[in-house]
Amino acid sequence: MSQELVTYIILGSKDRLSKVKKIRVDEHEQCLHLNFESEIEKTLDNLVAKAKGGIIVLLPPSSIPNQETRKILKKISLVNVSAWGWFKFNKNRKNIMQSLGKITTLISGVPSFEQGLYFSKRLYFSVGGVGYVGISPFSEISKRLQSRLDPQKPLAALSIRTKNLTLNLSEGKKIDVWASRISYVGESGWEIYLNNDSEEGLALYDSLLEVGVVPVGIETYANSRRLEKSFRLQGADLETDYNACESAIERRLVKEADFHGKAAHLSHREEEPSAILCTMTLDELNVSGTGARYPVGTSPIIDPDTGEVPIDSKGRRSYATGMSYCPSIKKFVVMGYLPKNIAKQGKSLALEYFNEDGDGVYPMTVQIVGKGSLYDPNNEKVRS
Questions:
Q1: How far apart are CA 110 and CA 63, in angstroms?
Q2: What is the dihedral of CA 377, 345, 276, 303, to 10 degrees?
């Protein structure tokens, strides 16, 4: 075989990794280093995504599997089952192979920091990566893999779900793709990335049509169905004029590590927002009496109480940052920032669109202030 079968990932500090002896790998192995001092949860997910081996082995820097153990790992990688287990090192760092767990076996214990862990790459992605694990992923990954074996303990969605796949298309054609378990709509789905090859792209498209996939166009993905979930779009709903708290995308906690803009973000969290991103729906589309019209682009928002465009305390005018008819909920959805004093659920407003003599003023109602969505508000579909 020409590709690597087993990928070793050694975890440690930058200083400790610099002192690790280089593993002599053969054509069926790959060795990578992971610095504990980096964002380990993201870096580990990315390393596993790029790893060429079917079996991933996490190791502390002080111990490397011996030749006999590595032979066993290669054999495991050739078996078409999901498997996981760990190595327990004694004081003399010998007898590395201690226990082996397969997907059909529940193991009561989980490895400690001093133990190495191996698992099938596809099993790792079936639990969606590790999410936040602090400085030692061994125990956390083991718990998640172990929970995966018990249908009574389903796992919550985690950080990323990606994998390299070889797709078998019609007429015996095969193509390599990178599939990401992610979606910009309110359904659980896949994004598929492939080489910039027109023949491969056309073959994949034809094969998808053959199995009943319905093409709906990029507008559905990037606009109508994201709006029914109130998903923000960078450059439209998310702009530098508004901070994360006003966009209602702030998290409950702020990580301890420093990052660019942290001081400003902490300051924003302490102050009352001047405006908040809201989700609204149009009450009527046939405002001219000549038939329904569907606005597009950006348009000013009007407060009927004043007949003017609302302006927040920082001098920012309210307008529609995104809008589209959303077939799943059969409503026309508009997103836009409203001053805090009028950002109230049930508030009546209006959207002005090519208005001539009042035939372009669309009445609308505020449905959601800040976080939330009109479609599947409890996110049951994206967890399915």
A1: 18
A2: 140
Residue burial 251-280, b: 16+ Cβ < 10 Å; e: rest: eeeeeeeeeeeeeeeeebeeeebbbbbbbb
Structure tokens at 285: 């589309």
Q: Structure tokens of 205? A: 């498209």
Q: How far apart are CA 309 and CA 331, in angstroms?
A: 23
CA dist., res. 80 & res. 220, Å (int): 38
Q: In a structure prediction context, what are the per-residue pLDDT tens digits for the chain, which is 384 residues long?
A: 445 689 999 888 888 888 888 788 888 899 999 887 776 767 788 888 888 888 888 888 877 777 777 888 888 787 766 677 776 654 443 333 333 433 333 334 555 556 678 888 877 776 666 666 666 667 777 777 766 555 455 444 334 455 677 888 877 788 888 877 677 888 877 788 888 778 888 888 888 888 888 888 888 888 899 999 999 999 999 999 999 999 999 988 888 888 899 999 999 999 999 999 999 999 999 988 888 999 998 999 999 999 999 999 999 999 999 999 998 999 999 999 999 999 999 999 999 999 887 789 999 999 999 999 999 998 878 765
Which two tokens mark 12? 């440690």
Q: Which residues contact 196 (CB under 8 A, 6 or more apart)?
A: none
Contacting residues for 235 by C-beta, under 8 A, at least 6 apart? none
Best CA proximity match to 294, nearest among 368, 354, 238: 354
What count of residues does the chain have? 384
pTM greater than 0.70: no
- Which single residue is written with the structure tokens 């099938």? 120
C-alpha–C-alpha distance, residues 299 and 351, integer Å:
7
Structural domains in the chain, sorted by start: 6-148 (no CATH), 162-215 (no CATH), 226-369 (3.30.1360.120)
Q: How far apart are CA 4 and CA 12, in angstroms?
A: 23
For 220: left if phi > 0, alpha if psi spans -120 to 50, otherwise beta; the answer is alpha
Distance (Å, rounded) from C-alpha 158 to C-alpha 55?
21
Distance from C-alpha of 372 to C-alpha of 384, rounded to nearest angstrom: 19
Residue 267: HSE in the Cβ half-sphere, 13 Å Cα cutoff: 5
Cα→Cα distances 345→99, 107, 318, 329, Å? 57, 50, 16, 18
